[in-house]
Amino acid sequence: MPYDDSVPPTRRARPLLLAAALAALCLTTVAGCGGSPDTTDGAGAGASPSATPTAPASPSPSPAEPLPRGPLTGRTVVIDPGHNPRNREHTEKINEKVDIGTGRKECDTTGTSTDAGYPEARFTLDVSHRLRELLQAQGARVLLTHDDDRPFGPCIDERARIGNEAKADAVVSVHADGSAVGNRGFHVILPAAVKGGGADTSKIVKSSADLGARIAGHFVRTTGSAPSNYIGGGTGLDTRNDLGGLNLSTVPKVFVECGNMRDPKDAALLTSATWRQKAAQGMADGIADHLKG
Questions:
Q1: Is 89 noted as a catalytic residue in this protein?
Q2: Which residues touch 180 (CB under 8 Å, ≥6 apart)?
Q3: Are 13 and 237 contacting, i.e. CB atoms less than 8 angstroms apart?
Q4: Fewer CB within 10 Å, N side or C side of the chain?
Q5: Which 8-state DSSP code applies to residue 227?
Q6: CA distance 26 to 200
Q7: What does 23-79 look like in DSSP terms, one character per residue?
Q8: How far is CA 48 from each of CA 52, 53, 87, 130, rounded to the nearest angstrom?
Q9: DSSP codes, 91-144
Q10: Separation of alpha carbons 117 and 195, rounded Å
Q11: Euclidean distance between CA atoms 87 and 110, whole angstroms
């Protein structure tokens, strides 16, 4: 669930000729689109946060430990784990409004959770750690906007600024949605053409759309999950103009809503460590595909 989703979004599907590609990719998956949950690690929709395995943090190498050389050598990727596990302890701070260029919105939100209490903020950190490791193995310089190392936040404007100041080649904000039961699947949120105040996405709309489309295609193939059946018109892509993290970005950026935590079938996937590794792999493959052109 995006940080600044308290205001009803202005949604506009952006097919980008992806529907046919997604359909073809579905045929290549073992589980099929929207495939059965993989719970071989013992974590299911009823698993508690403490029972859910997490990937060990993989800190960025120090100067004495150079990154391996690979196809992404020389590229910088910023991963933005949605929300912060301790935001709920600092509601006054995260409710303070910040400038998003076209208006003002809350600094951040607490995010959603499964019915069993597995928080979105823990999910996003776990997937972000896995994604970082996969990208570093290909030679990319990878930065996280936070790593469970601060009491709350960062705020949505700071998250955008971190990617901008890093001059990132790509920024991916990792999330999970909190929608109604029966709403299933993933979707990738793309920045709309926005100009106002400190926001101007004119230079990143096209590149962000390419990044999002490539992630969506690989996410289908790798996870077996179908594109959202409630957002994006079956394309897995949605364009929004109300998210500060996108409005304020000056580098290619997308949000990935990996599934719906409030649906039992999606929750079974999201609480599976095996599936989370697949989600990270799908995103890593899409990012690499975009960066390699």
A1: no
A2: 230, 262, 263
A3: yes
A4: C
A5: B
A6: 36
A7: HHHHTT-SS-TTPPP--TTS--TT--GGGS--PPP-PPPPTTSPPPP-TTTT-EEEE
A8: 6, 10, 19, 20
A9: HHHHTSEEE-SSSEEES-----B-TT--BHHHHHHHHHHHHHHHHHTTT-EEEE
A10: 39
A11: 5
Contacts of 222 (CB under 8 A, 6+ apart): 278, 279, 281, 282, 285
Give strand pairing partners of 173.
80, 255
- Give the pLDDT confidence score for residue 33 in this predicted structure: 42
Both structure tokens of 45: 């929709």
Q: What residues are paired with 200 via a beta bridge?
A: 195
Cα 288 to Cα 124: distance, rounded to the nearest angstrom: 20
Which tokens belong to 85?
């596990």
Q: Do the beta carbons of residue 224 and residue 31 sit within 8 Å?
A: yes
Catalytic hit among 92, 96, 158, 257: 257
Q: What angle do CA 15, 18, 21 make, to 5 degrees?
A: 160
What letter represents residue 278's amino acid? K
CB 2 within 8 A of CB 178: no
Mean pLDDT by 10 residues, the chain (293 residues): 44 43 41 39 39 39 67 98 96 96 95 98 98 98 96 97 98 98 98 95 98 98 98 97 97 98 98 98 98 93
Nearest to 147 by CA among 177, 109, 174: 174
- β-partners of residue 46 are none
Question: Position 178: which residue type?
Answer: G
Q: Which residues of 129-157 are buried (b: 16+ CB within 10 A; e: fewer)?
A: bbbbbbbbebbbbbbbbbbeeeebbbbbb
Residue pair 70/112 in contact (Cβ under 8 Å)? The answer is: no
Give dist(CA 288, CA 75) in Å, integer: 10
